[in-house]
Amino acid sequence: MSADEETIRGDLGDDSYEAADQEGRALQDLVHASEPDIAEGELRLWFPEQL
Fold first, then answer.
1. Which of 15, 17, 34, 48 has its CA 20 to 30 A from that of 8?
2. Among 24, 25, 30, 23, which residue's Cα sits nearest to residue 7?
3. Domain hosting residue 32, numbered range
């Protein structure tokens, strides 16, 4: 599975399902929420010191 170019995950992601499986670890993924209320929740979760 891969992300399309010119998307947040495609442009900034540097991990893959294959690499994570081979290394026996969780996928290092990016968080992206396009709806404002969902984005606010994600920002509070991951960047509480900046709000």
1. 48
2. 30
3. 8-50
